[in-house]
Amino acid sequence: MTSPIRPTDDEARALATGLIAKARFAALGVIMEAGTPLVTRVAFGLDPEGRPISLVSSLSVHTRALMANPACSLLVGEPGGKGDPLTHPRLSLICRASFLRHGEDGYGDLAAHYLRDHPKAKLYIGFADFAFVRFQVSEAHLNGGFGKAFHLNAKDLSPG
Hints:
It is built from three helices and nine strands; from the N terminus they run βαββββαββαββ. It has helices spanning 10-22, 61-68, 107-117; strands at 5-6, 25-31, 37-43, 45-46, 52-57, 71-76, 90-101, 130-143, 149-153. Strands 1, 2, 3, 4, 5, 6, 7, 8 and 9 form a nine-stranded mixed β-sheet that branches. The longest helix is centred in the first third of the chain and has 13 residues, at 10-22.
């Protein structure tokens, strides 16, 4: 059987990086302590270097799951208003999470950067239970629409 995965090209890279750049939220997949999967929606942004981040509360189930097991995935790209949702592009990022906690060096600078794209987060970004989660992407799977599947590595997604 022929592989449905196409060779990664500049068009696939541009589509993937565009989906990342436009995303303001993502579906986050984590593994809970009992080994069961959980998917939830989180705010999504990019740090000043263009790497994926989110602002999360330590009170949430998904944050506790990430603290116990940093392996996770993110899905970005939303269906358009018309047509079959499966024909719209989406990108699954395979990641490892790390945290920058409230009060740690760099939190204030990252918070100021984050608030430019997420101004409503001003209501809670200063709460002690909030932290930034940084997602180190190891690979990605791009579904660019029907018959347009690509596997990308971290270098394919590098900003600039």
